[in-house]
Amino acid sequence: MGEHTVTSFDDELNEIDRLIRDMGDLAGAMVAAATRSLIETDAPLAQRVISDDAVMDARQRELDERAITLIAKRQPMAQDLRSVVGAIRMAADLERIGDLAKNIAKRVNAVGEGATPRKLSHSIEAMAQMVMEQVALVISAYEARNAEGLITLRADDENIDIQYTAVFRELLTYMMEDPRNITGCTHLLFCAKNLERIGDHVTNIAENAYYIATGRQLPLHRPKHDETSVQG
Questions:
Q1: Checking CA distances to 184, which of 43, 95, 123, 193 falls within 20 to 30 Å?
Q2: pTM of the predicted model over 0.85
Q3: CB 188 within 8 A of CB 121
Q4: What is the C-alpha separation between 11 and 134, in angstroms, rounded?
Q5: In the CATH scheme, what is the code of domain 7-230?
């Protein structure tokens, strides 16, 4: 965005950008820690993720307050208004990513205590890596106002859906082979679903970031390849 005559206006807009970047960094770290705690059955690490959710909530509140104050004081127009309103929307999606990471962390003890072999947790590790990469990339593309990169990121959610379907099928097979796996695999299925939902929030962020960068909306339709609803 261009510079304004009032330097403090630029400072306020840059501060909102910084908060989005901080929330993006925290969201990625929470997903990474939640996944590692699940795979390693690390209860203290899981608890740290749960605690970090309060930090994420506080950052969203700070961003909302700054954005509302800026709108009231500066009455921004055109690209500036898009930037502020888009940031509020992106912050809501980042906060939800934090919630979903917390939900994964909350299941760590249940998975670790069940009869399910720990190796089954690794079936979602590749999916988690994809999701973490998407979170990092969407924030980078937003900061760079990289419209083409944001279009690509939105389309790449299809790969996460495909991976989720594969994880669903694998865990369902384990449950059918040995009833002792049902409880642990059910928890893992919820964890995988949370990761798939994080991917959906990344696409929402990409759409809002694209609107900020270009002033145009992406088409409503986007590929969805979660085939779990037709299993069995």
A1: 95
A2: yes
A3: yes
A4: 28
A5: 1.20.58.220
